[in-house]
Amino acid sequence: MKEIRTIEGTFTDVGGRYAVVVSRFNSFVVESLLQAALDTLIRHGVKEKDIEIIRVPGAWELPVAVKKLVDRGGFDALIALGAVIRGGTAHFEYVAGEAAKGIATIQNASGVPVSFGVLTVDTIEQAIERAGTKAGNKGADAALSALEMVSLCRQL
User: Fold this and answer.
1) Which of 58, 75, 98, 116 is close enough to 25 for a disulfide, judged by CB 3.0 to 4.6 Å?
2) Which residues, 6 or more positions from 45, have their beta carbon under 8 angstroms from its beta carbon?
3) Distance CA 102, CA 106 (A)
4) Mean of the per-residue pLDDT values for the chain?
5) Residue 91 annotated as catalytic
6) What are phi and psi for residue 131, nearest 5 degrees?
7) What 3-state DSSP class applies to 84?
8) How far apart are CA 11 and CA 2, in angstroms?
9) DSSP per residue over 5-54, as a string?
10) Which one of the listed residues 68, 91, 101, 154 is annotated catalytic?
11) Tens-digit pLDDT profile for residues 60-101
């Protein structure tokens, strides 16, 4: 039997240029995601000069900024960060769903990895848990995904 070839990304010596697109809405949570993402990128060898931060009003606006950056070029991966917290209306479903769909569409059409670090949670407590307490930090997770995808894409 032939040996099965496996290709996967790594987290060492990845380098590259990264854009972090950050929603200002729910900033009490999102700023923790941003700090963790930046820390992760830098700890894995990405130079500060190779990171650009772009701020948008909310998660709804993330896809248009991501699209503009992909069209501009020059980035190996993008990281989208935000927090959508369910309220008493259907607004949550529209914002969360369209942010996810918009970002996925851009990534799939462009071939540029866009890591989805947008929290979509039912409560403020869940958001806080995912921004650095019990459930880890999803900003760091999004940065790790971006690094791994850059490494993988280079191999493919």
Assistant:
1) 58
2) 12, 13, 14, 15
3) 6
4) 93
5) yes
6) -110, 25
7) strand
8) 28
9) P-----SSS----EEEEEE-TTHHHHHHHHHHHHHHHHHTT--GGGEEEE
10) 91
11) 999 999 999 999 999 999 999 999 998 777 777 888 899 999
